[in-house]
Amino acid sequence: MSSLVSFLDWCSRSSAIVFIRDSSFGMPAVQSVHLVGLTLLLAAILVLNLRLAGVSMMDWSLPSVERQLRPWALGAVTLVMASGVLMFLGNPAKYLASGPFQFKMIALCLAVLGQFGILRGFFTADPDRRPRPINVLVAGLSLTLWFSVGWAGRAIAFI
Amino acid sequence: MSLLAWCQWLEQTPLATAVSESVWLFPLIEGSHILALPLSVGMIVMFDLRLLGLGFRSWPASRMMRDVVRWSKFGFAVMFITGGVLFMTQASKAYGNGFFRMKLLFLVILGINAAVYQIVFYPKMVQWESAGSTPLGARVCGGLSLIVWIGVIVCGRTMAYQF
């Protein structure tokens, strides 16, 4: 554990991280990338869950909608994660001690676990053969998880 | 009344002072402004990518207009209301901020661009779709929209660093 902390500390003092953190346009640029990625990622998740809930994209099957969205969602995840790591490394101790940050990481794990684990069956099988209320419930749960990651992220700056 | 005086007056309105003085309202409104991005800009950007032929090729653009772009009006309603209130709380600082001015200019450009698309290309969407190719003009609208929306996000994020 202490070696992890010293590694993070070493990262936070590396010239690239210091440059991003302390230059006047470093953090705005990194955070802009984070927001553009968030926009695209959550848009894809919205469309996917609207299809699951049976309110949009009803001309296509859920798996085919997922296939169309996947490359853009993965690209957006890459932007969000890369920019997120750069922000985190600027001040690891501050983030690790932040309640909203801890909550955000837990919510993120749950959202990913839900999307690719526990709830995966709901997104891969034909939802139109299940009772509609179940689909609406799962879509609501998935959206709540993903958007709570965003809200927790915003709370880091305020709490 | 000058524009700056109007901004100072806005900051003194009961709504603006209530939001500024509340511990919870400002973060809640600002958070809503950011988290409405996927439902507003996100939907438009997906449509732009389709017009450019970069993604979602198995979905005809006219269907995306109906099934994806349609939802953006809810997102933009949240955006304009929350953005308006946020502006009221810090109007004079925003007035003097270069990034805020650029953001407004970008929004005007996007409004004109969307109107051009709606008038010139939207009525003939089904026709050019069955012909199997997106007109160059429609692709230019999509590309412009994609780039300028990213510019709006960058300006919106960056302006707050100068407050």
Question: Which quaternary structure do these chains form?
Answer: heterodimer
Largest sheet of chain A: none
Assess the beta-strand content of chain B as a share of residues: under 5%
Number of domains of chain A: 1
Rounded to the nearest angstrom, the distance between the terminal CA atoms of chain B is: 24 Å
- What is the straight-line distance between the termini of chain A? 26 Å
Helix share, percent of chain B: over 70%
Shape of chain B: elongated
Largest chain interface and its two residue counts? A-B, 36 and 30 residues
Strand content of chain A: under 5%
Fold and architecture overview:
With 159 residues, chain A is mainly alpha-helical. Chain A has one domain. Helices cover 84% and strands 0% of the residues of chain A. In chain A, helix 3 packs antiparallel against helix 4, helix 3 packs antiparallel against helix 8 and helix 6 runs antiparallel to helix 8. With 163 residues, chain B is mainly α. Chain B is elongated, with a radius of gyration of 18 Å. The chains are: A mainly alpha (159), B mainly alpha (163).
What is this structure, in a nutshell?
The complex is a heterodimer of chains A (159) and B (163). Chain A is mainly alpha-helical. Chain A has helices spanning 2-12, 15-22, 26-52, 62-90, 92-97, 99-118, 120-124, 132-158.
SSE topology sketch:
The complex is a heterodimer of chains A (159) and B (163).
Chain A: H1 2-12, H2 15-22, H3 26-52, H4 62-90, H5 92-97, H6 99-118, H7 120-124, H8 132-158
Chain B: H1 3-11, H2 14-21, H3 25-35, H4 38-51, H5 61-67, H6 72-89, H7 91-95, H8 98-121, H9 125-130, H10 136-159
Helix pairs in contact in B: 2-6, 3-6, 4-6, 4-10, 8-10
Task: Describe this protein with a few key phrases.
heterodimer; A: mainly alpha; B: 163 residues; mainly alpha; elongated
